Amino acid sequence: MTANANNTKCGFVALIGAPNAGKSCLLNALVGGKVSIVSPKVQTTRTRITGIITEKDTQAVFIDTPGIFKPRRRLDRAMVAAAHDARDGADIVAIIVDVGRKDAVQTVRKLLDRMPDKNGRQIILIMNKIDLSTHAKLLPLTLEMSKIYNWDSVFMISATRDNGVADIKTWILKNLPDSPFHYDPSDKSDQPDALLAAEITREKLFLRLHEELPYGLHVETVDFESENDTLIIHQDIIISESRHKGMVIGKSGSMLKQIGTMAREEMENIFGRHIRLNLEVIVREGWDEKSEVISGMGLDPSA
Fold first, then answer.
1. pTM beyond 0.90, yes or no
2. How far apart are CA 68 and CA 64, in angstroms?
3. Which of 46, 115, 206, 242 is the most exposed, fewest CB within 10 Å of its CB?
């Protein structure tokens, strides 16, 4: 009996790029459901998020990585290390670039320079956010991108509008190696529901507070219990400085109530059940330097 008796194809696809290039939005569009949070704030994704597509005899395992940037804190170092690990272990590396950035070419060059030997990996370029650009700007940018590397394929897309995403999906499914499936065909992600719930609340904090929100914020799901047709979820919103507590809570608790309502409504849509969500704001100085918090995110605190 061979190792792949079912004649299936399966492989890992790493989505890498600078912060806010649109990796998470693309992942959700590819999978056809929410597995990674999205916000205009850079460095929204902090850990490796896996999205899974299975069609007939082919399974693609996508890894949404933290944006690659210059790390400052222990959490930053762990985030960047996770991105590098995902890239190095992938069968296909997809470099996503925001075409609207003035340093788009320079950013791609840096990502390629940091890439280890190809070792059989296929490397594709995904030029995202074309809906925010013009043909006059895209044409010279595309020509320049084609000169800096011999890409296995190049795609021009708008992930937010689902424009061009199907072409990426088709290409990837055709170019995966022969291998048994790594996940059950019904799975869309390997992310625990409790972690997804925490990420949803963090996304609503980012969206509601915008630039006022300090980056030093984390959400932990403390309890995730089922009671009949209801999920009872208790979460701690952890901030690093006490002066930010009032910002998150709002006058007479108004901000926290709005965030809780937004998070609960999305959780009910995703989990298909009634949600009782309880939020508490906690000050924990230096949380982003603590090993237990970093490892709880699925990251390596020693990176």
1. no
2. 12
3. 242
- Give the model confidence (pLDDT) of 161-220 as tens digits: 999 999 999 999 999 999 999 989 998 888 889 988 998 998 899 888 865 555 568 899
Residue in the block written with tokens 């950013």: 107
CA dihedral 127, 130, 133, 139 (to 10 degrees): 60
Amino acid at 15: L
How far CA 206 is from CA of 108, 240, 295, in Å, comes to: 27, 16, 23
Q: Residue 300 in contact with residue 81, Cβ under 8 Å?
A: yes
How many residues are given for the chain? 303
For the chain, give every domain's residue range: 9-174, 193-296
SS3 208: helix
What is the per-residue pLDDT across 218-238, written as a single tens digit (0 to 9) for each?
899 999 999 999 999 999 999
